[in-house]
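Journal club prep, notes for RB
We'll compare a predicted complex against what the paper describes. Inputs for the iron/sulfur cluster case:
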Amino acid sequence: MDAIKRERPLKDKDLNGLKTIRNKVSRLWSLVVGLKVTGKCFLSPQITVHYPRRTVENLSTFHGPIELVPTPKDPMKPKCIACLQCVSACPSSCLAVVPKPAPKPTPEELQAQKEAEARGEKVKKAAPKEPGKFTYDFTLCSLCGTCVETCPVDSLRFSNDAYLASTDKKDFFYDLLGRLADQARAGGTGS
Ligand code: SF4
Ligand code: SF4
């Protein structure tokens, strides 16, 4: 019958039009979501500073290049016992530790040693328990913290050195014992 109107099937042209509208709405929504984040940050208090005119006051949670921790009694002496565990654990081979050689025995000690050996006693040589050399190549370090976690005597920690800049790579190759001595002379603990 002519009076009955049949629904027209959607043609390709109509479908494409619907797709375009849907895409435009989706993009507009993304823009609204993005602007919501921007607006929130715009209104929140500023947490960055205009370096170098200003510097950050509290760097207690900053992880800078690692450094040695001194013993409570002597700020020139590290807690390190030269066990080399940090050297083995470091995935980037940034650390090198050379244990301090045992001090040469005095003539009296040598004599006592000889006498003990003559009696068939075992003479124990004192094992060095501190580093003679401790170097650290910061250019290789990923600041993963494995060395800090591995150290059995908590002799390593992250420093607060945030403002490091140089055009010479050598400036980031540290002698950690020398650095500890400098910090002790300056009267600080470095952190
Ligand atoms: S922080 Fe990681 S990469 Fe850096 S010296 Fe320690 S173990 Fe090696
Ligand atoms: S820093 Fe710690 S882990 Fe590394 S050699 Fe010294 S005592 Fe051992």
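Talking point for the session: Residues 66-101+129-185 form a domain with the Alpha-Beta Plaits fold (CATH 3.30.70.3270).
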